[in-house]
């Protein structure tokens, strides 16, 4: 597996984001919009949020990548996302879709179909049930939380990668990243408290956008982004718990870790497997 | 009063939220939407935010309770709230209304009337002037802050409870919870700094939604939710002040306390009175 | 310069905001709306956010100042801002405009023109490239970050002050505040980490709104607001760094500092120059 992807490759991508500070255009949801901007800044990227139909294509035109997140979708915002995905495809910049709550309502499913038809995203990231639902599997989502294990969703992820010819990330206790060329990475970092802060999954998606802007191999970029968040997440949760604190303090410490994590600590902690399947 | 409601009853509700993790659908304001999601998660509930007219009734259909908050209302969002309140009434799940800034503008008052006409909420929570204004009392609100004492608003709360046949909470230095059956609880926890963090009142409303999802007696559920927030609030303010910190640090510590507060500390601090009037 | 403006004058304004708790109506962007409310509260002001066309003029009618921020503009929100700016001008209350991302897209530039035509704001605050673009200078903005130095933008600021007959603030490593009467103040506080938290510039604008509500000399009020944020910013960054923490922890400490900063520490740190040019 070492020949496919090494921890040092991941760190090189983390360093590249910090050095090149890519501009990431995000059309994201109202719950996480502030956190996602702060996550991008802490990791060294530069966020811009814009959704007006009149400017969304122009903003894509100055960005290095696009992130689209349907968490609090409505018809106006879905059209913004559609325009932006088309503009990104036309310009050849990477795009990332987070199908938050896929399967929760018929409208949400229709909107995801519409976005996939507009332009296939370079990467799609979701939890198990979101990826299964996006892939067309019959599954009931319990709100925006996952009711399917990440492992169960691997087949769906591979089918979806076939359809988009792109990279699919299924996040969970273990994160899986597959692509249309049969590559498959697994990351076993993270902490249970990460599910107790709103928008950590959405933040992962934002980071994938930043990493795709500096690393043209989207499967590798996605793996690097998930590794950074997993390591920073477990580090911040451990630090909060050790101080008798909880998920509120952890949120601040997570941003600290995204900013200050060094190579030595990253390499010591990251648990990566990569293979062809 | 012990026969009506005891501190141990309140703790049982807190434990039930943690254990059952109810899905709370919130249509809330843009200022507090992130904090409210995090407050629900820290308390053990599961938040979902959705406002598109095309899906709002479907989302109510998978939730255990509904929270509606008019803080940053506009015509689109008011219609979302109306659809959701009707769907919740039809399904028989509890709904909570936070009439933020009631009395501040004529439009705000009209929207509140419209929501009350759509379907009477199970619980309404506001500060003194918001409850007085919602009850139809002639009062000038100073923005979204209260210019009437909680005590002055008790008569208005009782009149409003008569109209909705539900539970009304007037929050302030002392929180009052009354219902249409003449029950009245008072909580004397909290801290002045709680008014220095935006959205603490709205967070109280969110918690009421979570508690109503696990405790069918809405008056008791509302009292339990307010008690949890009051105790967590005073604990976090005291901890911040003791460390030479202020309201910024307190916000993180508040989430920590919602997550980690234990029965012993809760019972030691809670100051509850309950009676029939 | 001492006769124009002294550090003690600035502190007097900080104390006045804390004492008088002005109601500041903000129509701001979705990324920073929560932080800006918390910044206003920590500084002692009282925020209200409202954007519905049906109530925006009424809300201006009970506020002491208006803040308008175009960060996540769309047609509905731009019209809200236009109505509010006209209402503020009619009532004679101060208004502050933050032209976030000016120059990034043609639509953004058109909206700024439209807002300036609606009613000249009392104060405009932006980074160097935003002020240059707002003044009509030909400049390419890199998203919402500044690609022009604050110094380069001084000429543009003076031209813009001539047009609006108001006060213009160009923020950067050194903050500059100029007005149509040829007054010019400079502040050399702050910390590089302030650019690593989203919405710090927007928070500066919010504080300017609060200070204009209690200090009728808008040039002085703007200088006082920028001084408070600069001192609180460097203090919180130093404290975070000293504790081995980063920008996540710094955000909480910044709110703490806005709330708890005392006169002695402020006067010890503030680096003010004021002159006629």
UniProtKB/TrEMBL annotation, chains A, B, C:
Domain of life from the UniProt record: Bacteria
Record carries keyword Cell cycle: no
Gene3D superfamilies: 3.40.1190.20
Cofactor(s) listed: Mg(2+)
Binding site for substrate: 49, 199
Keywords: ATP-binding, Kinase, Magnesium, Metal-binding, Nucleotide-binding, Thiamine biosynthesis, Transferase
Metabolic or biological pathway, per its Swiss-Prot or TrEMBL entry: Cofactor biosynthesis; thiamine diphosphate biosynthesis; 4-methyl-5-(2-phosphoethyl)-thiazole from 5-(2-hydroxyethyl)-4-methylthiazole: step 1/1
GO molecular function: hydroxyethylthiazole kinase activity
UniProt-listed NCBIfam families: PRK09355.1, thiM
Family (UniProt): Belongs to the Thz kinase family.
Function statement: Catalyzes the phosphorylation of the hydroxyl group of 4-methyl-5-beta-hydroxyethylthiazole (THZ).
Name of the protein described by the UniProt record: Hydroxyethylthiazole kinase
